[in-house]
Specification:
Blueprint lengths: L1 E2 L5 E2 L11 E2 L3 E2 L5 E10 L2 E9 L2 H9 L5 E10 L1 H4 L5 E13 L3 E8 L4 E5 L11 E6 L5
Antiparallel strand pairs: 1-4, 2-3, 5-6, 5-7, 7-8, 8-9, 8-11, 9-10
Length: 145
Amino acid sequence: MFITQPAAQRFPLGPYDDTIQCWGVVERDLETPWFHLCLELQEGGFAFGHTLLVADVAQLDSVLGQLTADSSVRSLMLVTPPSMNHSPHWRMERVVRLQVSLDKSAGILFRVDMDGGKRYSLLSLNQRWEPKDKARCIYDASLAG
C-alpha cells in the first residue's frame, strides 16, 4: 500500500478533474514488491501515455481487467526490495509473465517471470482478494500491446 501525507499534496496546473488528488511524495508501508505499469490510451485519434504505481497483484489484476480495446500495456515492471532481489538496493525489473494460482492450504500464490529468466514466487498478503480462477495468467508481455 502507498501512504500519502497532507503536506505532500500538490495542486495541479491545468484542467484536471476536481476529484483527482496529486502528491509530490508517496510512501510504502512495508518493504514489499510493487508494480510500475505503463499504459497507452487512445482517445480522439491521439495516443496518451499513462503510468500507474500499483501496490499489489490484486490491484494490478483489477486495473488490467478494466482496460478497453482503446488501451494497451506498454510495459510492466516489478519493483523489488533488497531482501527479495538479493542486492543492496531496490530494483525495477521487467515482467515477462505473471501467473496466479489458488491453493487452499497455502493461499494465493503468484509467480512472476522476469526478463532474463529470473523468477519470483510469492504468497499474496491480500487475504480478501480471490482470483477469478484457480490458476490463470494475469499478464503476458508477448500478448501485451
